[in-house]
């Protein structure tokens, strides 16, 4: 079994890499959605901040809610640990301190992406330039994951990377689903409902699932079908149930995993048995909040079991 501090570093490397990728996807989807909806329809730029539970953090630095401020907060704000730049800085640091475990190409890719992201921060005011930056980040995350998948031995380091990836992907996918639900739950949702198919198509595109949805569902984009696909499809790798099942699979490869697997299995089983179509679309965000709370409990048990087995966990602050 690898050292606890090493296991924690590669676990968090994977989580921050997934967070950076999905943050870029969510911001890109939100921007595309704005461009697809009629100009007369007022758009809430604060929704992504709410999704990240970062309202208080935002208000520490910004007095006005605007596209420019929200985008700077989510992409470039060094005081926001969950910003795109902050996430990639944490990927970089965890890779730097784990070079003896990882393929040598990883450092070059991560460092290059971080430097390019820093250099591009001045162009974030332009939507077109911002979309290009976000696409570059998403492509870089794909390359980095490809190197890990194709060059890393299937040992415990790989297991912790996969667990971190799937935990974070489940969390971030739930937040992306939450964005659509929150938009439809707003006071002006009656106006947005006229464009509901655009909202769901944007959600599928954000998660790279539009083609697979059409292939498996063989139908036009319908809200409840999209929800069921992104929540419970066991073949699409960005669905919630696929990620929860992936966590279970890699936990089973680790020693002393009984307590963690008990929590993980319960979350997956409850989620698989939930009738997603019975939940009103504008209330899905409550369901996603509960899943995020369950994932926090799961992470705490992972940390207590492998990262800090001798520590009073109630006093511990983790990287995330």
Number of helices: 15
Overall SS class: mainly alpha
Order of helices and strands: HHHHHHHHHHHHHHH
Tell me the count of domains.
1
Q: Which radius of gyration do the C-alpha atoms yield?
A: 19 Å
Question: Mean pLDDT, rounded to whole units?
Answer: 90
- Extract low-pLDDT stretches: none
Strand content: under 5%
List the helices and strands and how they pair.
Elements: H1 4-36, H2 47-51, H3 55-61, H4 67-75, H5 84-96, H6 105-120, H7 127-151, H8 156-185, H9 189-192, H10 196-206, H11 210-217, H12 223-232, H13 240-251, H14 258-273, H15 284-307
Keywords:
single chain; 320 residues; mainly alpha; 70% helix; globular
């Amino acid at each position: 079994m690898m050292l606890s501090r090493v296991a924690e570093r590669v676990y968090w490397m994977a989580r921050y890499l997934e967070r950076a990728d999905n943050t870029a996807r969510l911001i890109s989807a939100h921007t595309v959605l704005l461009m697809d909806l009629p100009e007369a329809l007022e758009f809430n730029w604060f929704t992504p901040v709410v999704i990240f539970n970062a309202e208080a953090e935002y208000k520490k630095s910004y007095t006005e809610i605007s596209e420019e401020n929200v985008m700077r907060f989510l992409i470039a704000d060094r005081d926001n640990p969950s910003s795109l730049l902050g996430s990639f800085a944490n990927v970089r640091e965890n890779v730097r301190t784990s070079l003896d475990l990882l393929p040598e190409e990883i450092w070059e890719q991560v460092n290059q992406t971080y430097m390019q992201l820093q250099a591009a921060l001045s162009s974030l005011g332009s939507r077109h330039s911002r979309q290009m930056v976000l696409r570059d980040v998403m492509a870089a995350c794909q390359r980095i994951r490809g190197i890990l998948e194709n060059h890393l031995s299937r040992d415990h380091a790989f297991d912790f990377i996969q667990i971190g990836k799937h935990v974070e992907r489940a969390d971030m996918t739930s937040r992306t689903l939450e964005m659509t639900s929150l938009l439809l739950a707003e006071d002006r949702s009656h106006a947005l409902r006229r464009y509901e198919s655009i909202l769901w198509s944007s959600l599928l595109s954000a998660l790279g699932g539009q083609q697979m949805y059409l292939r498996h569902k063989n139908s036009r984009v319908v809200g409840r079908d999209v929800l069921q696909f992104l929540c419970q499809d066991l073949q699409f790798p960005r669905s919630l149930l696929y990620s929860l099942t992936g966590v279970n699979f890699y936990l089973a490869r680790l020693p002393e995993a009984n307590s963690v697997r008990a929590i993980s299995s319960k979350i997956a089983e409850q989620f698989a048995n939930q009738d997603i179509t019975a939940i009103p679309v504008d209330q899905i965000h409550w369901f996603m909040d509960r899943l995020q709370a369950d994932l926090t409990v799961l992470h705490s048990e992972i940390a207590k079991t492998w990262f800090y087995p001798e520590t009073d966990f109630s006093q511990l602050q983790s990287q995330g």
